[in-house]
Every structure is written in C-alpha cells, then in structure tokens.
Amino acid sequence: MSDEKNSGNTFNINAVPSCIDEPVKAVLNPGANQIGTLFGDLLAMATSKIHFSAEKMRLQQAHDLEEFKKSLSDKLNAKPAECLVEPRMQVVGPAVENAKFCMDEPQIRKMFQNLLANSADIRYQSQVHPSFSAMIAQMSPLDAENLELFKGGRTLPIARYKYTLENDGERAAFTNCFLKNPKMIHATDIDLQATSLSSLERQGLIEIRYDCWLLDEKLYDVFIKNELRDILESELLQMKACEAKINDRKVRSLDFDKGIVRLTPLGKTFVSVCFDI
User: Fold this and answer.
1) Gyration radius (Cα) of the chain, Å
2) Going from the N-terminus, what domains does the chain have, and what CATH number goes with each?
3) pLDDT-based confidence at residue 252 (cuts at 50, 70, 90)
4) I need a labelling partner for 266 at 20 to 30 A (CA). Which of 126, 139, 206, 213 fits?
C-alpha cells in the first residue's frame, strides 16, 4: 500500500487498498465539493469489502458505483450552495454501508441517493432520521413503488374480504387487498401487495384502518369485481356445495369491509426525504 496520505479535500487514488480492482479505482475520483468527496470516500471503503469472482460482476459493480456517485453528485450540485452542510455520520455511515447491497435495484438506489443528498441539506437535515437507512435496506422494489403512491399525503382505499356465517358470525377471507398500483392487479399480484403493505405497516410508514373509509363509495367499486374476488367466490360455492362449516357454522356469503391506508407522520417525513417530490 502506498505511503501517501489523503490531504485536504483530495482523495488519493493510490491510497485505495490493493484488493480493489482497477475498474473500481477508476471511478473513485474526487467529488465536486467537500461533501461529494466524503461520500466518495465512504463508498470506496464500503465497496472495497466486496470481492466478486467473475469479471462481469466486477465490471457491473464498477459501473453501478459510478452511476451512483454521478447521480449523487448531480443531486448535490443542484442544491443551493448556502444550503449544503456537513452531514451527520450517524446517518451517512449506515446509508453508504447499506447502499452497497442495493446498487442493482434502481428504485432502492435512488432512495439512498436522496437520503444522502438531503442529509447534507440544512433544509432537510432535521427531518433525516438515523433509522431511514435501515428502513430502505429492508424494502423491496415493490415496497418502494407502493410507498411512492402516497406522495402528497394521499389516502387510498383498501379492503378486507370476509365470509359471513350463519348466526351473524364472520371470518376473514383475505386481508389488505390493495388495488391502486396499476401494475399489480392479478390475483397473484394482489397477494404480493398484501405482503408489501404489511411490511410497510410493520416499519411504521403507513397505517391501515378498517374502522373508517373514504366518503366516495365509487372508489370501492374495484373490490366488487376482480380476479381475487372471483377466486373467493368460487371457493364459497365449493363450501356451500359440500355444506362446509367454519367454527360449526355454515358459510352464507362473501362480503368485504371498506378501509383506508395512508402515511403515518413518520411515513410522511420518510417520503419527503427519500423520494423526489
């Protein structure tokens, strides 16, 4: 390893550990300003721990790292100079460490870029919570896609299907049917959507309620006819045909409860920091 050291705001390429391949070294150039250089240094240290056996994967990592740094630099350069401040290491350290595992997921990568850029913006710095990095790292691309639907503080409809039993009993048939993502409308998609919303709710970013609903009843028409409803209706007919019972009571019909899903206060702050508004 070279004896040369970093000085001032300049990152010494020769000081990079020898375990980093040349394609990666080529992209570890100094940023346009001190903050950009800090992020470049952190990314260099994080990615130096990864060793790929295939040349193709090494080159892909180098390309993804370069794209990440370029987009991050563009976001920083787009901010007014007077708004740039030194970011907190409690935020950017974990963010850079987690980001290295998400370079090949454009939606997740973009959220990390926004988090890092806004952590260096005095207008956002007080809103940037240290937990945001871990939240992004636990998201799937579908989670990010769904969460973006709530930008602007939108409240969206959701439904819970249930079987009505004799003697006024009921049992859940499917919980958290969410149909506002136009890419996810088939029965198998709806199941993935329910998992995604449950995960976002677990992280405290959204709240799902069935004790209130939207006043516009037409917003719930989509739950009357869809692939999932057809499957549940078919199962209902089969249960009726064999006189199946649930909790010793016969199944009478299929219905659904109207509900709402919206951002929590934490979710609103997270979206304002980690998404392009």
Assistant:
1) 25
2) 13-138 (no CATH), 148-268 (3.30.110)
3) confident
4) 213
